[in-house]
Design goal:
Layout lengths: L2 H24 L42 H5 L1 E2 L2 E2 L9 H14 L1 H4 L8 H4 L14 H4 L3 H10 L13 H18 L8 H19 L2
Antiparallel strand pairs: 1-2
């Protein structure tokens, strides 16, 4: 074994011994027995005596930011909005019809006349379920219906926990459909709609005139 080889072995041994000493010195029981307070335990450090700390003011969980006032409240400056905050599509109305029949139809009726099955079978209230076919409700902005679904009205409780915002808007849009189904001015119809209406009336008239 030559001199350089012995020197290398000694250097490796010295380095290994140094690393071992440093490692053992760092392995102190304080590493896993640190002073701490467990969750929901008393804590004299804070004025309220609690270890659990409240959320920092204005903390918002991811996905819960409600920065669109019209979309999430149906209002702007505390007034119901007159327009839906999304395009009115066939899919939106079909979704609104499906959700309406699940949540609203039992009281308000299939066509929104307030004659749902619950109303017909003994629901005794000083104020019966509303019909949407009154001048007052026909004149309400669409945001009004969204707000009622969200916060409730009279004995009707809030559906905010059961119906997400997008479905509340879909139902509000479908309420407009129901209102138009029972009360529409011919001046507001397109020529194509007028033609179909006239054909339908003619067919009905022809059927009724047959003996």
């Amino acid at each position: 074994m030559n001199r350089s080889h012995r020197f290398l072995r000694r250097w490796i041994s010295l380095t290994a011994a140094t690393v071992a000493v440093i490692t053992l010195a760092g392995c102190h029981t304080d590493m896993w027995h640190q002073p701490k307070f467990k969750a929901q335990s008393e804590n004299p450090f804070f004025p309220d005596g609690k270890t659990d700390r409240p959320l920092v003011a204005n903390t918002m969980p991811v996905g819960y930011l409600r920065d669109n006032e019209a979309y999430y409240t149906g209002k702007v400056a505390n007034k119901p909005v007159a327009q839906l905050p999304m395009p009115v599509t066939r899919e939106l109305l079909q979704r609104g019809q499906e959700r309406y029949n699940v949540f609203c139809q039992p009281c308000h009726g299939r066509v929104g006349d307030g004659q749902g099955m619950i109303a017909q079978r003994g629901l005794a209230l000083r104020r019966p379920p509303a019909t949407f076919h009154t001048d007052r409700l026909r004149g309400m902005p669409v945001g009004y219906f969204y707000d009622v679904i969200t916060n409730g009205f009279g004995v009707m409780y809030s559906y905010a926990s059961r119906i997400p915002p997008e479905d509340r808007w879909a139902i509000a849009a479908y309420v407009r459909v129901l209102q138009l189904s029972q009360y529409a001015r011919t001046s507001e119809l397109t020529p194509e709609d007028l033609r179909k209406l006239q054909e339908s009336m003619n067919a009905t008239s022809s059927t009724e005139s047959k003996p």
